[in-house]
Prevent host death protein, Phd antitoxin
Amino acid sequence: MKLSDQIKPISYLKAHAAEVVRNLSAQGEPLIITQNGAIRTLMPGRRC
């Protein structure tokens, strides 16, 4: 997966929360959430 696919603005998370959770579980790749262009949180992929 490309790094650009792993970076999303907080507005995307708000609009697509269920899809984001599904993808995190299925793909196991972390997701970086940004706000005003700055990293605000890192959501890890699959749980161990």
Notes: DSSP finds two helices and three strands in the chain.
